[in-house]
Write a structure and sequence with these properties.
Blueprint lengths: L1 E2 L3 H11 L10 E2 L2 H11 L3 E4 L8 H11 L4 E6 L4 H10 L3 E4 L4 H12 L4 E2 L1 H9 L11 H11 L4 H8 L3 H15 L4 H10 L4
Parallel strand pairs: 1-2, 1-3, 3-4, 4-5, 5-6
Helix pairs in contact: 2-3, 4-10, 7-9, 7-10, 8-9, 9-10
């Protein structure tokens, strides 16, 4: 499903997938509210989601989708590459973050990767985020710390992580503190990006 408030953009994206044997555009939406309604009706495997839209914006829609349809994979497709936008999207649990200047082949590959359960980030986004990271520790996160990080990457809050792993929120925070130190980062979004880049999650 394609979600963007500009009809011309939706037309262009639909054209990029026209005739592709293994990808079918089953629905379109012009804002977050419409996206939620169409997702309930069509149950797409992957949603290409713009961030800046009237009414319910992309991040708000992603958070609702993750709660209602965790099986649907969302890939952000936007013109905005600021740290705040990327961090909010990653914290909401997206499967990918691409920019609208991505070539046709990259978009198609991103949809396939997301549908298969993988994650994808635009190279420019990865480079920007990694450039701001500090020196990494040689120590890799423990299996338990990676469990916490995987749940964080799916958009879970500390309370949800604690409930899922049957531990306290204080323990979750301790695990995250250790993860940040080992990956050389200082926030959740950067930890997810660093772990993805190192293929830890």
């Amino acid at each position: 499903m394609i979600v963007d408030d500009h009809p011309v953009v939706r037309d262009g994206l639909r054209g990029m997938f026209h005739g592709v044997a293994d990808i079918e555009v089953v629905a379109e939406a012009g804002d977050g509210h419409e996206a939620l309604a169409r997702a309930r009706a069509e149950r797409p495997d992957v949603i290409l989601m713009d961030l800046r839209m009237p009414g319910l914006d992309g991040v708000g829609a992603i958070e609702r989708l993750r709660a209602e349809h965790p099986e649907i994979r969302v890939v952000v497709l936007t013109t905005y590459d600021t740290g705040a936008d990327v961090s909010q999207a990653l914290a909401a649990g997206v499967a990918g973050y691409l920019l609208k200047d991505a070539p046709r082949e990259e978009l198609q590959a991103a949809v396939r990767t997301a549908a298969a359960g993988g994650r994808v980030l635009a190279q420019r986004i990865t480079s920007q985020l990694m450039a701001g990271l500090g020196p990494r520790s040689a120590t890799a996160p423990s299996p338990r710390e990676l469990e916490v990080l995987r749940l964080i990457a799916r958009g879970a809050a500390n309370k949800e992580v604690a409930r899922a792993l049957l531990i306290s929120e204080t323990t979750v925070k301790t695990h995250l503190k250790h993860v940040f130190a080992k990956l050389g980062v200082d926030n959740r979004a950067a930890a997810v990006v660093a772990a993805m880049e190192r293929r830890l999650i």
